[in-house]
Amino acid sequence: MAQYLTTGGARDPFLPHLLGAIRQATEIDLAVAFIKSSGLALLYPALVDAIEIRGVRLRVLTSDYLDVTDPHALRRLLLLAERGADIRLFETDRQSFHLKAYICVRSQQSQTLWGAAFIGSSNISRTALTDGMEWNVRIDQVDEGMDLAAGRFREIRAEYQTLIDHPAVRSLDHDWIDAYEQRRQLLQRLPIAPGSDEPEEPPPQPTNLQQEALAALSETRRIGFQRGLVVMATGLGKTYLAAFDSERMGASRILFVAHREEILLQAEDSFQRVQPRARIGRYDSARKDMDVDLLFASVQTLGQTRHLEGFAPDHFEYVVVDEFHHAAAPTYRRLLAHFRPRFLLGLTATPERTDQSDILSLCDDNLVYSRHLFDGVELGLLSPFHYFGIFDETVDYQEIPWRNGRFDPEALSNKLATLARARHALRHWRDKGQQRTLAFCVSRRHADFMAERFQGEGIRAAAVYQGSTLERSAALEQLERGDLQVIFSVDLFNEGVDLPAIDTVLMLRPTESKVLFLQQLGRGLRRHPTKAHLVVLDFIGNHRGFLNKPQALFEVGSSYSELASFGRRARDGELKLPAGCFANYDLAVIEFLIRLQGRGPAAHYQALRDSLGRRPTLSEFYRSDANLPDLRRQHGQWWALVRDQGDLTPEETECLAKHEAFLREVETSNMMKSFKAVLLESLLHNDGFRQPPRIEDLATQALEVFRRRRHFVRDIRQDLQQIDSVDPKTWLKYWKSNPVNAWIGGNKKTDAATWFELSDGYFRPTFQVSDDEMETFQALVQELVDYRLATYEPRLTKAAPADPVESTKHSADIIPIRQPMAQEDEGIRLPFFPNLGIACGHFRSGRTDVETTCRIGENHGRLDPTRHFVARAVGDSMNGGKQPIRDGDYLLLELLDPSRAGSITGSLVVIERQDVSGEDQYLLRRVTKGESGQYVLRAANPDYPNVEATEDLRTLAQLRATLASSEVQMNDDRSKAT
């Protein structure tokens, strides 16, 4: 046993002594008169590590003595209680409580191996722990001998237990803190102790970017949306955004759902800082809090039906679902189908539209706000970076087993923990690295190996992981001070821990997840006065598993052709980067990317599967710019392609064989309005394939779908578009006429299969689905319905859904015209779609996936590049009359405004429809009225028959002029069109 004095001040501050003891302990007992937020912040990371990583038993006792303790510090202590700490409070009631005791013990199997107790003058404040003149006596016990000193140590521990059991001691909770905050009077006299006058940490305020997002969220709710998706890169504050938005909306009960513990813990801290008076609870395998303001829930637990049933659907007013990239999982769907909050917010940091597909479906295809990593750098919120894509020349990744979208962990670790690879990494680090490096390794063995190799070269390095000698918080402090140069970590720094001073990130492991890659990158993107830029050393191997890195950082698509195109741009120095940023790929990496080529639906599917690390959904396949008509020509339907790729389970294969015809009908049924898909969505929500619903319930549920997907309201007859107050009987009659009538075969003119029937007021399938296959069948159908809704959404004009117009009078906004282009002296540049042939014959398929520009003269009136575009005529049906249009002519077209669509009689109009494969088709005709008042689309060439306007046709654009080829000057990038 030993005892000695710490004197405080700059020469001997108390904080390092205390942190050193905390990091050795398996049991920690603290008793202090008051706790300030500033002091708790200095101890908090070490206390979190003690609980989370080492499983330490932590007890904290403080008091309301003289009302000095900060309420915010008390609320933060409750977050430690969420993690398992025992937090108590001594109510003084005019009784003095002036203790300052810190007891740390390391024991094993009930035997004390070591102990340290500090008794003295330091409360938990920044001043008392750092530069204040504070005397504290430290008493160390190294064994449990029977000498006098050891007895004193046991006495201290016994007295602490006596104090904990004192009648004035109570457990800390939100009710007590609320009452304390109400009665607490700020001291208006001289400080009573060092640090007692330190101000509470001010609440965070939204950044300018978050203000933009908050305005967008407010607007999306104003126009009627109940769900929305926000995409924000790591480091831009998406969790804080959710806290700010739920507070501004005035939500009384908030649910935050995630699939990982560390996300929930970080979110609790963020929400508490924004809403300090809110009562926080947890719902997971260990705790089941119910009556709280903010509930942080594990989806694995709350997503189970038996837990969901404990909450009314409207229990929460605001629901946040964070990073649910696997949101198609049944647990998420059950949760989102059960709850009906005033607003649901989906959060993600994933940049690629493919990865947003499932989230968009669950958020009613409502992308509210999007800011990516490059935006953060350009706005000055994130640090510029110098990125080096280094070829991993010492490892042949083709030799490592690849299973279920991942490398075999043991084989991977064996390949990476080699002397040759360590030398390769060391050489590049010495050449490009800076002062403070965080390195990501694949395993503990890999981290230890790399740390030993670097240490052998005289570099101050350490391995940090759960169970390592050096703890996370201690390692970060040493890195900050410069005592360490490199931390080799495993799974402890992916998120939730920020050290702004990190100036180099060393990526020594493959990351199958784009999100994980961006989180690791984000550890170093925080700005810091000592850091001009972040250096990223990313080791890339010869395997498809590395493709997600350029996809994540540069928002490259998932197809092999897009990756090859990216490789060519990288080779030619044409990558677009924010100011101050730099990117360089080794030639071997570029050659690997350029060699990636694949054609056809199967190759596209494989590329997407490799990118995601799992089987893609049809919505993801669609949003990755796949050719759906080719898919159906070669495979018949989506699930057949998945089957041909060997990705169906035995249950799914059997279900497809039995129900292939119906699944194809769902996927390809002609759908010029959203009604068929909305009905199926309503049917699935009501479990209607298992228990057929009453037609009234089905119609009511359809209204709920329209209330969430406000864009679709324009499909409804105009006098019924006030869906929040529509007459139920009128709505039921309308809904029975379409789509119920369509699904039961009322619109069919042939003997085609009828899939449903209306029997005794119930909507029933005409085919049988057994209980054994029901869950599989519904999942297959749900994926197709998500796709149909996703493909329909872009076909709607993006007018404000609060002011919808009659759907038969609106144009489809499938032409992806972007920002306005400036008027130039030689004329104006307009979008030109080389693959969009406007048929002047019979309906012809066209595509708008390639856009370039052309320049035309000034003699065509005032033109707006957001409304006007150019395409070519194909065919001779309009080659006649006074103004013939010939095959190959350039057409100047104007997207039709819904408010003006009623005045098109007599005009030349582009009509669009979808064929049975879902492919878009276009036709140019003159709109006239027939004798009975119906619209007729007339050709100018008598060799072509007229076409009667039907419900499956839409007006897209009106012809402004036919352009001579001499009037059209193509932009240089037209050669890139295909």
Automatic annotation (TrEMBL):
Q: Boundaries of each Helicase ATP-binding domain copy? A: 219-369
Q: Which PANTHER family match?
A: ATP-DEPENDENT HELICASE IRC3-RELATED, TYPE I RESTRICTION ENZYME ECOKI R PROTEIN
For molecular function, the Gene Ontology terms on record are: ATP binding; DNA binding; hydrolase activity
- This chain's protein is named Type III restriction protein res subunit
Give GO cellular component annotations, separated by semicolons: cytosol
The species is Thiorhodococcus drewsii AZ1
Q: Which residues form the Helicase C-terminal domain?
A: 425-574
